[in-house]
Amino acid sequence: MTTLNNVIYWIVALLIRIICRINGGLEIRGRENVPAEGGVLVAANHISYMDPPLLGAVVPRRATFMARKGLFDVPVIGWMIKSAAFPVDRQRTQPSTIKETVKRLKRGELIALFPEGRRSDTGELLEARRGIGMLVSLSRVPVVPTLIMGSDRALPVDARWMKRAKITVVFGKPLFFSAAAETKGQGGHEAHDEISRSIMEEIRKLREAHGN
User: Fold this and answer.
1) Tell me, what's the pLDDT at 86?
2) What does pLDDT average to in each consecutive run of 10 residues of the chain (212 residues)?
3) Which of 74, 82, 181, 199 is most buried as measured by Cβ atoms within 10 A of its Cβ?
4) Cβ(146)–Cβ(170) under 8 Å?
5) How far apart are CA 136 and CA 56, in angstroms?
6) CA separation for the pair 103, 204 (Å, rounded)
7) What is the rounded CA–CA span in Å between residue 74 and residue 65?
8) Strand (E) positions, the chain?
9) 53 in Cβ contact with 16 (< 8 Å)
10) Residue range(s) defining the domain that contains residue 168
11) Burial of 29 (0-12, 13-18, 19+ CB in 10 A)
């Protein structure tokens, strides 16, 4: 990644934090729980279209996202996300996508994603998809469960502009799933599903502890 891209990334992150603070407040808890180096998955709930840029702005390390491939063809938006994301097919996860993500994790990148696979229209937590469990099993990196609150009020589903609302992001303690499949004696899909459920359960616990 070029120095210019890094500078642009952090300037945009700073602007997003400033806008959120002016727009009702921004509280970030548990940043110290994000490992300072090495591959890591930051897994957050998804309640607003603003969640990806918000998460990228508050995580203490540069984040890489898995973005819907169609976004890369949208003028301006495609150019903006190209340096911070790589494309995925949300309808059908390709083996090449899994391979690329695992490769990035093993070389020490922080990958931010949303285990539910889509935005929750009600704000309630949805069931996690199997993909994150597969990534954890193949990469063996820690997972930081992350709770986002208030972004659905700041940018509701049908809103054209941000509304005044406080946003809170809580980073939980890292989860480790080394050799999870082998220790439970499960088949691949069952083990991946169990890991995915465990991550969402930790996000649910964060909401119970920090929810407003």
Assistant:
1) 75
2) 80 94 96 96 94 94 81 57 70 74 94 91 88 92 97 88 95 84 61 93 94 66
3) 199
4) yes
5) 20
6) 29
7) 17
8) 26-29, 40-44, 63-68, 85-88, 110-113, 143-149, 167-171
9) yes
10) 3-210
11) middle
Chain-centroid distance of CA 28 in Å reads: 15
Domain count, the chain: 1
130-139 and 95-106 helices cross at what angle (nearest 10)? 50
- Token look-up 């509304």 returns 163
Q: Any idea which residue has 């929750």 for tokens?
A: 120
Query: In this structure, what CATH number is given to the domain that contains residue 46?
Result: 3.40.1130.10
The owner of tokens 């808890």 is 29
Which among 170, 204, 141 is positioned nearest to 55, based on CA atoms? 170
Contacts with 18 (C-beta within 8 Å, 6 or more apart), sequence order: none
Provide the token pair at 190: 């069952």
pLDDT at 75: 58
Q: Which residues contact 123 (CB under 8 A, 6 or more apart)?
A: 47, 152
Check if the beta carbon of residue 113 is closer than 8 Å to that of residue 171.
Answer: no
The span from the CA of 119 to the CA of 122, in Å, is: 9
